[in-house]
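Quick question: what would this complex look like in 3D?
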Amino acid sequence: MKGLRKYIPPFAPDQSGAASVLYKLGGIIVICDAGGCVGNVCGFDEPRWAAEKSAIFSAGLRDMDAILGRDDRLVAKLADAAKKVEAKFAAIIGTPVPSVIATDYKAIKKMSEKKLDVPVITIETTGMDLYDVGAEKAYLEMFKTFAKDGFTVDEESIGVIGTIPLDVSDLKAADKIEMTLKSEGFKNVYCYGMGADLSKVEAAGSVFKNIVVSPAGLKAAQYLKERFGTPYEVYYPLVGDILQDEIKEQFKNFEGKKVLVIHQQVIANSIRDKINENVNSDVTVASWFMLKDELKESQDISLTEEDQFVELVEQGNYDVIVGDNILKRAIPNFKGRYVGTPHFAVSGKMCMI
Amino acid sequence: MKKESYYITAENLAAVGKDNIPAELISNTHLIYSSPATLSFNSPGAQGFGVKRAGLAIPGSVMLLVAPGCCGRNTTTLSELGGYSERMFYLVMDETDIVTGAHLKNIPQAVEEICKCTSSMPSVVMICITCVDALLGTDMERVCRKAMDRVNIPVLPCYMYALTREGRKPPMVHVRQSLYSLLKPMKKKLDTVNILGYFAPLMETSELYDLLHHIGMKKINEISRCKDFDEYMHMGEANFNLVLNPEARFAADDIMKRLNIPSAELIRLYQIDKVQNQYKIFTSALGTSFDDQKYYNEAKKVIDELKAAYPDVTFAVGEAMNANSFELSLALLRYGFKVAEIYASLTAEDFVYIRKIAKLSPKTKIYSNLEPTMIYYDCSEEKIDITIGKDAEYYHPDCVNVPWNEDVQPFGYAGIKKLFEELKHSLDCFGKEV
């Protein structure tokens, strides 16, 4: 049945993806909600919140704000906060409430810019899309607004787009990617979404190339290619970490097997590539999130409904499934091998590597 | 720009009065800072009892959350708490649903499917809806009746309308009313009382049970102690309801209207003499009395032991805990301790405590957990020895902390006794851990 989830809780929503991209940039982030959405972001979808403070606020909308469309009150609250809290920019992130009342984000942006001394960006998320949709919008807006022209290309600098915790499920991923890329000869590694601050975003035009580690980062990479001519590659450099145990066993459990890999598309593709490098097997990628045509193989499957997932596993005769453990709840009759691979946006669980 | 968090001293706050509360302490005048207390305030489903968990208080019930995916996201945490993963279901709405209302047509079928996939037939299906349906003006009671026709068990609406948090009937008030709405008029039993207000039971050692037994109550009902739906329905037999949390007043009024069960109200206090007074007034009103000296003495002894061991200890008191921050702070001050800081969401009703705090400790600083400048809170500005509440621990991570936020509810002398035992134990143990 459309929308019914009997076993798998809902995944991270678009506003969480957008907030995560901007989390480290030193701006005031306003989740345009009544309170519950920012509670979800800070209390669940943003694991960095417990360890490091960020100026992430709720608009504190109330019923009469929504009914009367009192955007001026939101702008006044934002202007008040901007006087008290040091910020390099302000971002307003949408949720279901402004979506239902058709809030005019462009107007809010214009009104806010008149009152604030810093740039204002708006991310039109609705709470009804998934995290990657919000992250994609935020990456694009971030580079469009903050990336500066005039930098010369530095062959020792490299950008990595898509490293938010929701995507890479590992708070040390940025450090690990940096180490990996430095071992390949790069001196400066900018992990957008996790390690890189606003100055690195401003210098996005200076990198020699970008690596895209999440489908949510693809549009931004394409934009940077168009604007600065920066080439990009799409793969996840830490796939070896995810498959440590399988690598130790030389993928013998995958030899000649029918395999279903469920993750965000870039990580899933990198897992598939790694399996195919080692053994012969029939690997299908499935994702609850974006499946970009340019990264997709013909057999790959876009998952939207829980029933569809159950049917896929029941009728697909898979020998091995690689995916987040929470998905197992929906397929208790699956008798094959299940390789647990955390996806934070799915279960809220991190990699334990 | 001054990078400092806003506070007001108790004496200044008392001076301006409840009609001139500074805007920084009024949550709807500013953006809401995401501190741990805000998490409880904004999204109580993530910690403790929010609407979702509270809505499952009826034994054998399940919940269908009908909402955009984001509203159910943090329920993964709830599901991991014992037994909830088999009781929470979701009907995820998309934009088309909002425009066409198609999700409402699907609810009866979804309820039917849920009932088929559970190991035993649920006693009740709670349909939880959120801000979106609040704005759409959804008539969920009608939808519930349709669903009920399909499954022949009660289907109840449960409103998680964050937009109405500061309204006349906020979500946590509404959910309490929903929970008792199934009770039907039954023949009254004079020796039966319902305790309303909490979703978890009172601590076993609370003298309130002894008091109620003493005044002739043989059956003391609490929703969280009901073993099954049948036992829950027998709450309709009660002689009276005892309301322990003001958020249950609406529920008590509703029960009075529908079932003609009157109610009395007691509140949780940490000032030992006020506990004694409250019991005296309560029993006098019922034309009886209760000798509580034994319980008083036990609690007093533990307070005195803490005072003897740590006479100069300085507290910071938060709000994410089982107490009114201001009443607890006043109690600590009256026992002779220092309270340097209070982090809490102020209401006009709290001024009864504020005025007394101002007299005893005029320089006590009062902060709002929700105010944006709390991002600059600097714990080095005040010497704190011990914090109460998880939110207070956030501001003073290196101090002794007593979270005081367990599900099982402290009440009366027993609550005071347990708190002061925990405070002493935590101070005794501090620095001893390897």
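Answer marked as accepted. Chain B has three domains: 10-19+291-429, 59-168, 192-273.
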